[in-house]
Amino acid sequence: MWQTSVQVLPSSSINGKVIHQKLLGVHPIVKYTTSTSVAGRTGPKHTDEPERNATYKVSGQDVYGHTPNSIFVADGHGTHGQKAALQAIEMHKVLNVSPEMLLGTDFKRIEETLREQLVSKMLEADFPYSGSTFVFMSIIEGSRNRWALTVNIGDSEAFILSKDRIHMCSLAHTWDDLEIYNRYVSLVERPRNVCYNRWNASKHRVLDPDGTHRPVMLYDIDHNRRKASINQQNVEWVSGLWQKFSKPSIRYGTQSVRLFSEQHQNWGSTVLINGRARGQNMTSFGDCKERSLTKVPIDMIHIYIHEIEPGETVVGLVQSDGVGNHRTIEECHRHAYSKKNAHEYLKGIPNPSDDMSAAMIVSEPTTKR
């Protein structure tokens, strides 16, 4: 089994990590069947009665849905997170791409058009301190080609899975990603500092010798070069504290079963606004006050087009981070590809600590024409 992931393009793209892949050569004409399914589970954090909604499913602050050829999830956060998610998920309605467009138009042009339509929806959000992620995938079938179109805002995940391959085609827009943070630093006049949320806005706050709570910064910013670097001393100090006081078996991160190669990743880092740690997502649908203060560009939206190998059964999976906190990427592949049903995929996770939602699309070849 091998993994591929979203790659970095040395360009001025606002995302910084967008690449569109295309297969070359003539494909056989293959007929496919497509099926979609969704499922969700409510964690103990959000036990309020969910809003009744005839169009989408709701689990706590997660909202999710599907059409015959597309799947989508919105993971709300904040006081009005569910309302933000219900509004964010409506963005799937503007993501209409035909096979003819994919065959006859440059992928970059399609990306730019879709981004303009999504930005117009983002501007309608009126949630000062609440927001939502949004992740979408559709499988588009032509007579000789199949494509997966993926959109993500925030930290919800999207995968394309085949028998022996995991292709991660989403990008977590979080403050933990140094490359994304550096793109932000290069774009705004006064970039905000990033600190460790766990040690600046929770019970782990550490009292300084002078009686104050000095924020523990993740990055050092060189304002002259408009570039940031990791403060390695702070990284090692926080990692040491966590291993000493909490879970020594978990190497670095505190939020997930995922083990990252870089020590600074997955610490729940947040931007520092007026002395407070606020907002784990660099970009989201909503969070208007934080966006106005941080100046994060509203078009920081990840749009990705991948041409799928012909003749293979593939499973598209989108999910909220509640699922990723319980399963490694390899476990996501194993459960999703074997079960090919969202309800069965989530059923095996015991005692979820957060809301979880997943949507799945399965494209299977039937006969050659």
How does this model look, in words?
With 369 residues, the chain is an alpha+beta fold. The protein folds into 2 domains: 2-172 and 300-368, PPM-type phosphatase domain (Phosphatase 2c, domain 1), CATH 3.60.40; 178-278, no CATH class. The chain is built from 10 helices and 19 strands. The strands form 4 sheets. Strands 3, 4, 5, 6, 7, 8, 16 and 17 form an 8-stranded antiparallel β-sheet that branches. Strands 1-10-9-18-19-2 form a 6-stranded mixed β-sheet. Strand 14 and strand 15 form a beta hairpin. The protein starts with a strand and ends with a strand.
Helices and strands in order:
Blueprint: E1 2-5, E2 30-41, E3 57-59, E4 62-67, E5 70-77, H1 81-88, H2 99-104, H3 107-122, E6 131-132, E7 134-141, E8 146-153, E9 157-162, E10 165-168, H4 178-187, E11 194-196, H5 197-200, E12 219-222, E13 227-230, H6 232-245, E14 269-273, E15 276-278, E16 285-286, H7 288-294, E17 302-308, E18 314-319, H8 321-324, H9 329-339, H10 342-347, E19 356-368
Parallel strand pairs: 1-10
Antiparallel strand pairs: 2-19, 3-4, 4-5, 5-6, 5-7, 6-16, 7-8, 8-17, 9-10, 9-18, 11-14, 12-13, 14-15, 18-19
